[in-house]
Amino acid sequence: MQPFSMTFCFIFTLLVITTSAVDNTNLVYKGCANQPLQDPNGVYASALSTIFGTLIQQSSKSKFYKTTSGTVSGLFQCRGDLTNVDCYTCVSRLPILMDKLCGKTVAARIQLLGCYMLYEVSGFAQISGMEMLYKTCGKSNAGGSGFEARRDSAFSALVNGLGSGNGGFYATSYESVFVLGQCQGDLGTSDCGNCVKSAVQRAQVECGGSVSGQVYLHRCFISYNYYPNGTPKTNNPSSSSSSYSSPSYSSSTSGSNPGRTVAIILGGAAGVGFIIVILLIARKAMKKDDDY
């Protein structure tokens, strides 16, 4: 089978949120191959059904899992702070969304606030783990004097945390700058550290003085937010919820590889969800301030 290509396509839509509760299943972005899946005998459909069933089953007890059926491979990953129940709830939505948003294609990747899933048919063109799939940056020049230095100190703490292991997921803060990162579950510690370093460099260049940002590479992602009045404390250090973000985003992505597809949908609900989760996770991380 010849390698397939994907084409960059961005779709932005506004979603309305009617509850203060965060939904891990809010859509962040989708990537759909532009080649339809030729499957007259139903071989691929059967393989996909097997893969989806296995991934959903494993999501009730694991945050990351990959599997193969015939010539089709697939994996899922949940954000590191989700419970097993939340992970399962998130992952169980993905096969339906893949079919709805991508149809029958040779490869697809769907990223929700709390988890993502991808599959590809053997022969699909591979991309670098460092390739940027999606980025979004917040307001610029709103962090005041010395903001970038504080942000970069927080980035250093993040890189050190993920480069030292921590299961490929780490969140911390430095002087009101909250940072969070995660690597794909099968990345070794060294590769994870290198991926996060690359994501940090992307954020520094692409977002500049923005007070918030998210950068998704193929095999890792980072997020940062600045809270000028300090992150609120909590009496429940075990609290966790779904993803991370910041208000007033302007969104864009890498155009360095136009032969791939990552169609992005970023909704207002996703942005609100990011804010709430950043607050919840940051409350725990703020306790580590004195360590940096």
The order of strands across the largest sheet is 1-13-2-5-6-4-3
Task: Specify Rg, calculated over alpha carbons.
Answer: 19 Å
Report low-confidence residues grouped into runs of 5 or more.
1-21, 232-272
Classify the beta-strand content into a percent band.
15-25%
Query: Span between N and C termini?
Result: 51 Å
Q: What is the tally of helical segments? A: 5
Instruction: Estimate percent helicity.
Output: 25-40%
Mean pLDDT: 75
Report the order of strands and helices. Answer: EEHEEHEEEHEEHEEEEH
Number of strands: 13
Which structural category do the helix and sheet elements fall into?
alpha+beta
Major β-sheet annotation: 7 strands, mixed
> What is the approximate shape?
elongated
